[in-house]
Amino acid sequence: MTAFTQQDVEQVLRSWRDPHTDKDLFLAGAVRRVGCNDDRIVVEIVLPYPAESVIARFREELTSLLQARFPAAAVQIELRWEVSAHPARASLPALQEVKNIIAVASGKGGVGKSTTSVNLALALQAEGATVGVLDADIYGPSQPLMLGVPDGQRPGQSRPNQFDPVLAHGLQSMSIGYLVTEATPMVWRGPMATGALQQLLNQTAWQGLDYLIIDMPPGTGDIQLTLAQKVPVSGAVIVTTPQDIALLDARKGIEMFRKVEVPVLGVVENMAVHICSNCGHAEHLFGEGGGTALARDYGVELLGSLPLSRAIREQVDGGLPSVAADPESEVALRYRDIARRAAAQLALRAQQQGVAFPNIVISND
Fold first, then answer.
1. What domains sit in the chain, N to C, each tagged with a CATH number?
2. Per-residue confidence (pLDDT) for residue 361, from 0 to 100
């Protein structure tokens, strides 16, 4: 005879918190079914973010937790992940073949935003998702170089008036850099640049993307506002360094996304610490704790911190970003943790906010 009830099992499950959301599985909406029958426990859980590398560990932890509480029971944990299309503003139609759009932005240049963008995309892919990258920096495209795409390679056209995305390391990618040479400067006024961005986004034949990562140009100008107003962005990730001037500009980036009602999923603190390759001494060259303070002040997540590393720079300059170059390295594992946390925050915020978003109001206050 069963010596426990469904409520007993649910109580035990609630004691386990998802490390990527810091919520129990019920609050995160991940529990689909809890069944108890003849001393047998069956639990079905669907995580709302790609988590291929942690599924086995989570299943083992939950199984051990239930078996410790109900030693006579046979425990079966059915655990998987599933990416849903999370709503952007109701006034914007979804982009065909793209479930979610995540903008990666910074208030200023030189903080490693593009490096973070490409490694975030590769990390989401490593966790099992289908991912694309759009290089939105019309004036200074860098994704073709970072992805190792040869200069002169052009996107194909298998459909009229549409580009085929360029495949690199399994990612679907598009950039103005594929349409011009490295030596061609984009001497365009704002409306021309924003028009080009919209064409790259809407006239690329994306194929079944769970996530499209948009590598934003630095700042809070025309391209950023156009993206926020006319593109169904699901959420934004802010990249900064611990340096005071970078944090000041990162605050402006967060405020911009708040004004246009795009949820900020969290902050990535780049170049947080330098570790000497000779002696192992750790030194905070750009300050310490800035990313943590920024995330706390705005009530968002610190998704993770990354070191100031020559290897990261050399790998991305060589067209083989860290997650692709050395998937089991500490840096690659950090990027994968950041990716899971960002995707989990997107799912959590979508669940909390529902489908209704306010209309965009841009003011000077």
1. 6-81 (3.30.300.130), 98-353 (3.40.50.300)
2. 35
